[in-house]
Design goal:
The protein is built from four helices and 22 strands. It has about 375 residues and is mostly beta strands. The chain has two domains: about 220 residues, Thrombin, subunit H (Beta Barrel), CATH 2.40.10.120; about 80 residues, PDZ domain (Pdz3 Domain), CATH 2.30.42.10. A six-stranded antiparallel beta barrel has the order 5-6-7-10-9-8. Strands 11-12-13-16-15-14 form a six-stranded antiparallel beta barrel. Strands 17, 18, 19, 20, 21 and 22 form a six-stranded antiparallel beta sheet that branches. A hairpin with a 5-residue loop joins strand 6 and strand 7. The two termini are about 15 Å apart.
């Protein structure tokens, strides 16, 4: 995702001068954008490789290897530009409208669009530009911060949904094409390259992810865009670029078997990610300093939604033998487990008293917004 430059930021404030006082007083102007309604549409029609190929004739899909020009022409129909607006409140009642931009891919005939969670995180207004240049507002459906996947929806039927491919069939060296909105101003841009590696373990914002590594040029704004194979099938959702002075040509995409097969399909059909562990059964404050009463950094337990033998106020210091000091570390360990598994939690309830307690992991219902 790319943030627009400061010229796109609007400061809303009202300054009222008081003639009988020295200086100036500030009266704040209230600004709020109405939250978009969540989609309640349950009629979802998806395109996949097992469907009747005649259905795809109208948009050019044949299931055969295509030229670069053919892939680009076909894939661009399903890729959209995503522009978001969010409000940040400043002092004296002022408020900033911040605009951001990214990409998305239409994945259903009923208007569902797959994008990155970080593209629309915090957005209070979402505008989508389709491949024909038309603009329409989109409603937030659901999102999952752990996998950086989100679903939004436009109120329109479309025949331009992407054909969902099979990312497990990808191999290093295979040609792919990335389509998106780099820099937030270049919608419909196409870049070509190869799969550099499959199943690449990468840590992004504290979350361990298994991604496709590619050498196709991707830039801020490509986030949420599509990665297509040379049949024109969607095999990934672009979500990151490695940025450093001595790094060039390293990008990453979320495999479509994860992005749609495990996450988006579950969010739409069930309203939650099936098999996702509930990391919030215990709630903490992070404790970084060491004192006589706190022999080590850790997590201060102040609430629980399950029965626990750990006294409130105890310091959680390890899970399954892994030391933890932050809430992100706690979530990372639990998210690597499966619902129904049991983990052993080590804690200090006083400087001279420690203990362990076993927690059986449960399903997280609902989703991150």
């Amino acid at each position: 995702m790319t943030k627009k430059p400061s010229g796109f930021v609007i400061l809303v404030a009202v300054i009222v001068a008081a003639a009988f006082l020295v200086g100036a007083g500030f009266l704040g102007a209230y600004l709020a954008l109405a939250k978009l309604p969540q989609s309640t549409t349950t009629s979802v029609v998806y395109r996949d490789l097992t469907a009747d190929k005649e259905d795809f004739a109208i948009i050019g899909y044949t299931g055969k290897e295509l030229t670069g020009e053919q892939v680009a022409a076909f894939a661009k129909q399903s890729v959209v530009e995503v522009v978001t607006e969010s409000v940040t409140y400043a002092g004296f009642g002022g408020a900033y409208i911040t605009s951001g931009a990214g990409s998305g891919v239409i994945i259903s005939d009923s208007g569902h669009i797959l994008t990155n969670y970080h593209v629309i995180e915090g957005a209070e207004k979402i505008t989508v530009t389709l491949s024909d240049g038309s603009e329409t507002e989109a409603a937030w459906v659901m999102g999952d911060e752990v996998t950086d996947i989100a679903v939004i929806k436009i109120n329109a039927m479309t025949e331009n949904a992407a054909v969902l491919g099979d990312s497990s069939a990808l191999a290093a060296g295979q040609r792919v094409m990335a389509v998106g909105n780099p820099l937030g101003d270049l919608g419909g841009s196409v870049s070509a390259g190869i799969v550099s590696a499959v199943d690449r373990e990468v840590s992004i914002d504290g979350h361990r992810m298994t991604l496709i590594q590619l050498d196709a040029a991707v830039n801020p704004g490509n986030s949420g865009g599509g990665l297509f194979d040379m049949r024109g099938a969607l095999v990934g959702i672009v979500n990151a670029k490695s940025v450093a002075e001595d790094v060039e040509g390293i990008g990453f995409a979320i495999p479509i078997n994860t992005a749609y097969g495990k996450i988006a399909s579950s969010l739409i059909q069930k309203g939650y990610v099936e098999g996702r562990v509930d990391t919030e059964v215990l709630e903490f404050n992070e404790i970084t300093g060491i004192t006589i009463s706190r022999p080590t950094p850790g997590l201060y337990l102040y609430s629980a939604s399950v029965d626990t033998d750990i006294p409130y106020g105890s310091l959680i210091v390890a899970v399954d033998g892994q030391t933890i000091k932050t809430i992100d570390e706690w979530k990372a360990i639990l998210n690597s487990k499966k619902v129904g598994e049991t983990v052993e939690i080590e804690y200090y309830s006083s400087p001279l008293r420690s203990g362990t307690w076993r927690l059986t992991l449960t399903q997280r219902y609902g989703y991150d917004t």
